[in-house]
Design goal:
Number of strands: 23
CATH superfamily of the largest domain: Alanine racemase
Shape: globular
Distance between the termini: 60 Å
Helix content: 25-40%
Radius of gyration: 30 Å
Number of domains: 4
Largest sheet: 10 strands, mixed
CATH topology of the largest domain: TIM Barrel
Bound molecules: pyridoxal-5'-phosphate
Oligomer: single chain
Number of helices: 22
CATH class of the largest domain: Alpha Beta
């Protein structure tokens, strides 16, 4: 059936349109009721919970939209998948070492995430990776006994001392040397404290990977030792009698690597370094391959930068097989494989839910029913194009209308036509665009010349969220996340829209969407009914977004709830956290909300004295000011009785 057949529309058509069965990887589905379900397997049985039910449960607990949901089961499933895929790959390739995963906490440092990774990852010996002192402290407080801790980034004395003590406490804390200048301080602190360090060397891999992070890899990558520096550092350690500390070789090929063959080339090069150093007596036991395991945000298993042409198991098999083949040639024992998969561990666990507040339609408000006289010839020309739009050639009709519209705008800028004449002309343009679009059948391939037609008519749906706070990568690096309504999916989505956030910034928008047929500049949505909730979900957004988000326009953290879905179909809200209040945000910017309030109070006291407002007005204003300070930063519906009554 055609996806666009509005009368026979079913939830299955919605699933096909938004591609949820591809990018959802079995974790999300559209139910017969037309709602998005989270699907959790328990043995042979799948348990589904509807997202609108979770929103209701959150509201019952006085949380409001926008809301960040963390589904613990989905985090557990990724840790399980990674560890079990490596175990299987090791078995199937005959690799004689084993696998130890570490989670790079930079990807999502939230306490709920780290504590769940430590808890669920314990039987797998899943460790942590830190890149700064704050992250080191967080890891030391969360690491399981004897856990593996990889320390990347620059390390000062405080950092090194804590890491050394961690070894004394029974952890395996590796200092990964990113630059030769780091070594003397590590050796000096080790000798002062009498604790032997565990050292790793990070190497620059010349094999370049594709995708958005090509720069992280290759000769010119910011971090890691050149081959000459690597050899010199090995020699320094040997001369210092500390070679026994050098047990790990590290590289990071990049993040979100879409092509498996690029990974194979990088792993082969890293294994060659490993083999030669081991052959000359360096007691290496671990090969750490960093991050890079991609998430298929699009769900089409391709080499697109937002997808990947492999599954988790293929990645694990490729890694184990490549190390084995390279080392076997020199009869070097197989090391413990470490990977620092961040994105692939946490992306699936989080969903951002936000409500639509308003819609701007791009459609003609009023169209003349006869040719306007006494106006500029170009406006008359636009009228003629409008009248002909039902029969004209689609491409040339659209191109002429755009050209005429742009020339009319120039006339306006030059002061040659009035604002009212421009309004007539803009309505006519939209009338032409609408008539031409109606003539396009869904199956018809849209000619390049008509590429702008859909976007010029698309509605703007205003969402109660901030791109900069909740989805910063979509603004900064053009990251696409799957987005779709979480309900009404049994109804035909008759509108085409882009989405704007609450910030008054023209970059605060989402206008690249993942649909099953590919990328689209507009998202099919349902007609917005102002009295009813219309809620959209952004999926696969658990990696990098939370701490990269900023306070642009002073929108703070949203409410967050973590939940666990149970085998009987119930769910427990395991953690809840209210979003930032206005006062909290102002405090972060070095304001003092109390003095802020006092100075406002002083100002309105003056207004009372001058008779501008009454004492009763003063009370209302002060209480509204105080409430606003203590409320969250996002859009809130205030009931009629609660609203300020003007002029009393
Ligand atoms: C050293 C290091 N390890 C691991 C990662 C995580 O990478 P990913 O999220 O692609 O797994 C990064 C991120 O760029 C990194 O810099």
């Amino acid at each position: 059936m055609s996806l666009q057949n509005r009368h026979l529309w079913s939830p299955a058509d919605a699933a096909a349109l938004y591609g949820i069965n591809q990018w959802g990887a079995g974790n999300f589905a559209v139910s017969d009721k037309g709602e998005v379900n989270i699907v959790i397997p328990f043995g042979e049985m799948d348990v589904s919970v509807a997202l609108p039910d979770i929103v209701q449960a959150a509201r019952d607990r006085e949380h409001s939209l926008p809301l960040l949901l963390r589904i613990e089961n989905l985090l557990d499933a990724r840790i399980q998948l990674l560890n079990e895929s490596f175990a299987r790959a090791i078995r199937e390739t005959g690799y004689s070492g084993h696998y130890e995963g570490v989670y790079p906490v930079k990807v999502n440092q939230q306490s709920a995430v780290i504590s769940e990774i430590s808890r669920y990852g314990k039987p797998y010996g899943h460790g942590l990776e830190a890149g700064s002192k704050a992250e080191l402290l967080l890891c030391l407080a969360s690491l399981n006994e004897g856990g593996l801790l990889i320390c990347n980034g620059y390390k000062d004395q405080e950092f090194i001392d804590l890491g050394l003590w961690a070894n004394k406490l029974g952890h395996r804390c590796f200092f990964v040397i990113e630059s030769p200048t780091e070594l003397p301080l590590i050796l000096e602190r080790s000798s002062s404290l009498g604790i032997q360090p565990l050292i790793g060397l990070r190497i620059k891999i010349s094999a370049q990977v594709g995708g958005l992070w090509t720069e992280t890899s290759g000769d010119r990558s910011s971090f890691g030792l050149t081959t000459a520096q690597l050899v010199a550092t090995v020699d320094s350690l040997r001369e210092a009698g500390m070679l026994s500390s050098l047990q790990l070789l590290h590289c990071h090929l990049g993040s979100q690597i879409p092509v498996l063959e690029d990974i194979r080339a990088g792993v082969r090069e890293a294994s060659r370094f490993f083999a030669d150093l081991a052959a000359e007596g360096v007691p290496l036991q671990y090969l750490d391959l960093g991050g890079g395991l991609a998430v298929d945000y699009i769900g089409n298993q391709s080499n697109h930068s937002h997808s990947c042409d492999y599954q988790t198991f293929d990645y694990c098999h490729c890694v184990a097989e490549t190390i084995k083949t390279t080392l076997d040639r020199k009869s070097i024992p197989h090391p413990t494989i470490i990977t620092e998969s961040g994105r692939a561990t946490v992306a699936h666990t989080s969903i951002l839910l936000f409500n639509i507040l308003d819609v701007m339609h791009y459609q003609p408000l009023d169209l003349p029913d006869r040719r306007p006289d006494r106006c500029h010839a170009l406006i008359q020309k636009q009228y003629d194009l409008y009248r002909a739009a039902d029969n004209t050639d689609l491409s040339s009709g659209y191109v002429s209308a755009v050209r005429t519209r742009d020339r009319i705008r120039e006339l306006f800028r030059a002061g040659d036509i009035t604002v009212r004449e421009r309004a007539v002309a803009e309505n006519l343009f939209l009338g032409i665009a609408q008539a031409l679009r109606q003539r396009l059948t869904p199956e018809q391939e849209v000619p390049v010349t008509l590429a702008g037609l859909n976007s010029s008519l698309a509605d703007i749906y205003y969402g109660n969220f901030s791109v900069f706070q909740s989805l910063p990568d979509s603004w900064a690096i053009g990251q696409m996340f799957p987005i779709m309504p979480i309900h009404r999916l049994d109804q035909y989505p008759e509108r085409q829209a882009s989405i704007s956030d609450l910030t008054c910034d023209c970059d605060g928008k989402l206008d690249r969407f993942i649909l099953s047929h590919g990328e689209s500049r507009t998202l099919p949505l349902h007609t917005f009914l102002p009295q009813e909730d219309y809620i959209l979900g952004v999926f696969l957004m658990g990696a990098y977004q939370e701490t990269l988000g900023d306070l642009h326009n002073l929108f703070g953290d949203t409410d967050v709830i973590s939940l666990r879905i149970n085998e009987d179909g119930s769910f427990d809200i395991t953690r809840e956290q209210s979003g930032d209040t206005v006062a909290e945000i102002l405090t972060m910017l070095e304001y003092n909300p109390t003095s802020f309030y006092d100075s406002f109070r002083g100002r309105i006291e003056g207004a009372v004295k001058k008779g501008v407002i009454t004492v009763a007005d003063r009370q209302q204003l002060l209480s509204r000011f105080k409430n606003c300070l203590n409320n969250q930063t996002y859009f809130k519906n205030i009931s009629a009785t609660d609203s300020l009554k003007g002029g009393q």
